[in-house]
Design goal:
Layout lengths: L4 H15 L6 E7 L5 E7 L2 E3 L2 E7 L3 H8 L2 E8 L4 E11 L2 H10 L2 H9 L9 H14 L11 E6 L3 E6 L7 E7 L8 E6 L2
Antiparallel strand pairs: 1-2, 1-5, 3-4, 4-7, 5-6, 6-7, 6-8, 8-9, 9-10
Helix pairs in contact: 4-5
């Protein structure tokens, strides 16, 4: 058995990128608000290394509010074509401004304009209202760069638990759990199996 969950994730992720027909980067993000009310939604993985798994979003939306109240999260990748899942749990921190700026600059112009136009997770009177705000943003930045909004950026989930699930016949699945044993980037991991 491998003793490095990041190497195993990299191998599985490479296979998913080669075989999954849509968005192998898609992952469910589970959070809870201050009252413990859970919420889950799909986001896209935009970077990962030994420090954690990174996604980007509006930092004034519901998920950001949840993470401010309870800075822990769960992630889950489900690669149906491979019959595999990976679950990740751990504390969440903000990605740096430099990381957020670099990723934002890599997005398409319309996506960058949409970030300025959206009051993510807040009530919207009509689709036309949002489309008008996109056009206002387009006019505002006409002929120039679209900078990252101050309310938009990345989050990093630093894993404390990573579970690799492989489908097997007759629901006799294989589950491998890695648990972090110490803090810091040089922290070790223990590995064990779970009953399916």
């Amino acid at each position: 058995m491998a003793d490095d969950p990041f190497a195993l994730f990299d191998a599985w992720f490479a296979e998913a990128r080669a075989s999954e027909p849509n968005d192998p980067e898609a992952m469910a993000l589970a959070t809870a608000d201050a009252a413990g009310q859970p919420s889950v939604r799909m986001v896209l993985l935009k970077g990962h290394d030994e420090r954690g798994f990174v996604f980007y979003t509006n930092r004034e939306g519901r998920k950001a509010g949840d993470l401010a109240a309870d800075p822990r999260a769960g992630l889950m990748f489900h690669w149906k074509s491979l019959r595999r899942q990976v679950r990740i749990e751990g504390p969440v921190s903000l990605a740096s401004d430099a990381e957020s700026d670099a990723y934002f600059a890599s997005r398409g112009r319309d996506s960058r304009l949409g970030a300025w136009a959206s009051d993510q997770s807040r009530p919207l009177a009509s689709r036309e209202t949002f489309e008008a705000r996109v056009e206002q943003a387009r006019a505002r930045f006409e002929g120039g760069e679209v900078p990252r909004p101050p309310f938009w950026g990345g989050y990093r989930v630093a894993p404390e638990r990573i579970e690799f699930w492989q489908d097997r016949a007759h629901r006799l699945h294989e589950r491998r759990l890695f648990t972090k044993t110490s803090s810091g980037l040089d922290g070790g991991w223990t590995e064990g199996l779970l009953f399916p």
